[in-house]
Description:
Layout: H1 25-44, H2 48-64, H3 68-85, H4 88-104, H5 108-125, H6 128-144, H7 148-165, H8 168-184, H9 188-205, H10 208-224, H11 228-245, H12 248-264, H13 268-285, H14 288-304, H15 308-325, H16 328-344, H17 348-364, H18 368-378, H19 382-389
Helix pairs in contact: 1-2, 2-3, 3-4, 4-5, 4-6, 5-6, 6-7, 6-8, 7-8, 8-9, 9-10, 10-11, 10-12, 11-12, 12-13, 12-14, 13-14, 14-15, 14-16, 15-16, 16-17, 16-18, 17-18
Amino acid sequence: MGFLDGPNESDNDSDDTTGRKNRDDTQFRRTMELLREKERICREIDEKIGLHASLGDQARILLEWGEPGQAMELLREQEQICREVGDKGGLQVSLSQQAEILRDWGEPGKAMELLKEQEQICRETGDRDGLQISLSQQAEILRDEGEPKKAMELLTEQEQICRETDNREGLRVSLSQQAGIFHDWGELGQAMTLLREVEQICRERGDRDGLQISLGVQAQLFRGWGEPDEAMRILREMEQSCRETGDRSGLQKSLGVQSLILKDEGELTQAMELLKEMEQICREIGEWDGLQRSLGQQAAILRDEGEFKQAMTLFKEKERICRELESLDSLAISLGSQALIQGQEFHYKQALSLAEEAYTISVKHGYIGTADWIKSILDTIPHHKKERNT
């Protein structure tokens, strides 16, 4: 990484963000009408089993269409009914779905309580599929909370269950999560081994979404290992698959990483073409994190070509998006990049203000690599040198 390049944001995992599905209003309304009619009938005849099944089905549809609050109301009533009638199978499913919503709402403690109860029910009833789902969800929470070793223990048990029951989807999920932990630990060879098995499973099952994710991470690893040709081969397969399936979110990710490789190889015109397409896709689908990454990469190329004014325009838009998203590492990188340009144009007061804000953000939130890079920028600003030596 060169001094001017700054930290590589595309090497940081970001939540796998996807746009809400285009709603087929007619089908949505018709399905919900039928389920609500079923609910009404079940309430009239006091049919508890049918009622809780209807509530669960409605909740799943509401979750799919981005209505977690309404879904949670139905799931809590479903939970109550399941407890009353002793339906442990329905109860564990309801607890799992509630836990997923609570985790999305930033309440991992409450989510973990429900998942622990789900785990206990599944062990008592011998429900191995429900058990592996609970273990997977718990592992995600533990990893988010900085407990990767505990998460790995649960994922290993999930993997064993899925291999014994030939649950290929559950196995894919477990191996993918394990690969992420190995990646975080720097054990990239083990991560790659698991990702290749994930790739094989996805090809067998025709799971293009899972395949694209696996290929994308493998490409990042190959790029990090100094094998750009292999990374590009994988990324172009990912790009082709995304174009065929209309997966524009996956497509913009592939274009973004390809552009980084092309930039590394000095192919700036080709890199910029891909970044422009990435930008257009992200604006159209509302993929704001991808947009800020595209703008940042374009701005870096323009800065290196001496187009400071155009670069600053893009960096400022990136800054605005990052503030709205509260994407703090990317915000610090944008501020540092702007400081670098201001310094190169001898606007030292502005450069110092930007760099100091960027440094404060990166240190406060533990972005060590970014902080070190911004510190190197601060050390080039005359005002900063003078104050430091006073």
